[in-house]
Structures are given as structure tokens and as C-alpha cells.
Amino acid sequence: MDIDEDYDTEQSDYGDIPIVESPHSGPDEDHENWSDVSTVELDLSSNRLEPNMDDVPVPSENTFDVTLPAAHSYLGQNLEELRGRTILDDGIYINLPLLVKQSVLFPGQTLPMTVFGTQTIEMLQTCIQNDRTFGVVCYGNPDMERIGTTAEIYEYTDGGIWLDHGRREFRLKAKGRQRFKILRIITQDNNKISANVKVLPEITLEPPFLDQRLASLDHLRISVDSEEDMKKQERVENLDAAVTAWPAWVYRQYDPIRLSFRIRQHLQFLETRGGSVPKNPIDLSFWVAQNILMDHNERLMLLTYDCAISRLQREIKYLVEDKIYVCVNCEAFIGRQSHMFPMNKEGPQGTYVNPGGVIHETITFYHVQGVVLNNSDPSTEYSWFPGYAWTIAICKGCRHHVGWKFTAVQSNLRPKEFWGLTRRSLKNKDLKVKKKK
């Protein structure tokens, strides 16, 4: 998928000069050939949406196999699978090779990569021979961030691929595993970075009433699966709190089960559209950070937290009210949080890589507005969603690349079309609906 935008930079073999990860070709920049696909009235002067956005129909049928995008089959069928899993001890100090990227990797997130630099390929091959683990950190200002996530390689191309123009290519799939903190940079020669790091533990707190629970009420305690169950449990908690110094509502703010339940309530619209939202508080806290659009610095902050309770408390504010997604450049209205829907079993956001090695965190929507399409024919080449062809989508206001429109090429596929918008091209705003006089 080809577009000119701010690409991740790969570790270079040429000193401090970074190799820009550019795709193998770019779109025709003749803006007279873009077709307008905006479908919703806008009031740009008042920066508000017309209320008819609520009338956009939700796709009622999905026949697409959502496991296919998570398999990243576009990387090829010749990848070798690695068995087993590497678990690093909490608090251990190790030397870890690092890759610096523009996006945040969270535990549980899949990271597909196409790498071209010789030194980077050799580093990854060394990782495979050892514990299959390397570290991923973000660019910071002015230096790289000190908190990152280990990534474990689980599939890779055996040896590496030599391209026609003499450039070497290496493909892999990795999974985010554990958070770490950089203590000291060991080597940083020719952009080949390794560091001494500490693997950060994930702190799990017991239920807030564990030490104050009244044994006589144990027969009334139930697992919470519905609003009715939650109300029943609240009555029991009120009795538990009666023998403590604090009212029950204080304890509830630190209950991971309650926080998880509230967040999953706000995400029910995804589950009704075929999505799978984790129930485990730790898994859920990382899943929300990965799949819900929020500020880059906010995501980095979430990665620093060592407890799911803290992450869930911070994340729930992004879900209490619907959000509008606007162009990061011109703030033109693009989409809406409630218009997301999952086309990947891992959630509405998937991480994909194009032939040029550019990593795109892409959120899928069934409706967007304020974008224009290239008039060129849709292409199935390197499609992240098998059975769908893609066309480049540009912000109508500033002509900045925002993603792609995907159109089914098979008659039995539903939905017939959807949108994939890149995280880096969007930012969120509170929803403000224009009231007509």
C-alpha cells in the first residue's frame, strides 16, 4: 500500500544517516483526479457535526473471516514458525537489542515487519538463535523513550530475501510481551542499538475488600456478568464497607473487576459487531490502549503504569462519551468512535506493514466523511484484508493521507466496503452535535 507520508526510519548501515522506509511506488499527486466521497453534512465554521450522523446504518452482516488479517498472509507463505514462548523473569536485568519506532507497542499486540537494513537483519537473526526477543521503543524528544516493550518473534523468513535491485529483505511477525525500562545504552554504533534494561513487573492487587470481607456474606458473592449482578454485588459491598473507615464508592474506584465491567459496557457496540473484548483486567487495559484512539503521549503514559487498575482508570475517560476523530493536520471531521467496527480478531485496530517496510496502525470504520479517493482502479496487491481491494483515501481539507477504502472483490463478502484509517493521521475530540434552531 503506497503513499507518501511520515515513515518510520529503519536502522541504517551508514552511520547517523537513517534509511527512510519508503514504499516501492507512490500515488499520482494530480489532485484534480480525486473523487469526493464525503457523505455527511459538515458545519466547518462552527466545528460541529450535523446530527444526521446518527442515521448512518450499521452493517448487519459480516461474512469476512476476521482471523485472516491477524495472520498477515500478505507477508508470504514461506515464513518459518517458531515453537514455544520466552517469559523473562520480572525484575531481571538483561542486555537487549533495540529497534526504535514511531508507534507504541503494547503487550499482546502483533508487530509485523519487513526489514531491509543488513545490520538490523543480522541483529534479528541473532535474536532468533537465542531467545527470539528484542525490544521496541519510541522516538522521544529529544532522545528515545526510556520505557518499551519486549517483542518475541514467532514467524520469520528463513535466511532472508535478496531483491532484484540487490537490497536484502527480511520478514517477520512478533508479539509484544513485557514492559521494560532502559537503564543504560550499551552500543549505539551505526544506528545499531542495544541497552541494559530491567524487565518491569506487572503488579496485581487483590480485591479492595479482601481483608475486610465479612465471612457471613460470602454466600452472597457472585461473579459479575451483567448490570443486575453488579447491583447485587454493590449491596454486599455496602455491608462490607460498613465496618471500614471509607464508604463503598471509594473502594469501587480501585476494583479491577468493576472497572473492567464498566469499560466493556462502553465497548458493547464492538461486541455486537463481531468483536471480542478481553475480560481479564490486565489484558483489557492493554487492549484498550492499543485499539482506542488517544494521544501519543497518553499511550506512552499508559505504558509506564505497572498496574491494570491505574491504566483502566485513565482509559475509561476515553469511553464515557463518544469521540469525534479529526484530521491531525487540519482538524477536518473524519470519523466517529462509535463508527468503528472490527475486521480483525485482535480488535478494530490492526498493525500492518506495507512492501516498503512502513508500519501502519490502522483502525477500521464502516463510515467516514470528509475524505476523497484516488480515481485509479482499486488494487488487491499486498492487501491486508484478503478478498478486498484498496484505494488510497486523502483528507478533503488538506490532502493529507488518512488511510484506504477497502472494497470487496468477491460477491459473497460482507461488508461490501469499509475504511481503514491510520492512527497517526487522526486525533480525537469530544463529540459536539449542532442543535438546529
Descriptive notes:
The protein is an alpha+beta fold. The protein has three domains: 21-71 and 322-430, Metal Binding Protein, Guanine Nucleotide Exchange Factor, Chain A (Beta Complex); 76-199, Archaeosine Trna-guanine Transglycosylase, Chain: A, domain 4 (Roll), CATH 2.30.130; 224-318, Methane Monooxygenase Hydroxylase, Chain G, domain 1 (Up-down Bundle), CATH 1.20.58. 18% of the residues lie in helices and 30% in strands. The protein has nine helices and 22 strands. Strands 3-18-19-20-21-17-16 form a seven-stranded antiparallel sheet, with no helix packed on it. It has a five-stranded mixed barrel with strand order 7-9-10-12-13. α5 runs parallel beside α9 and α7 (281-291) packs across α9 (308-315). Residues 2-48 have low confidence and may be disordered. GO terms for molecular function: metal ion binding. Residues 322-430 form the CULT domain. Residues 1-34 are annotated as: Disordered. This is Protein cereblon. Likely a component of a DCX (DDB1-CUL4-X-box) protein ligase complex. May interact with pic/DDB1.
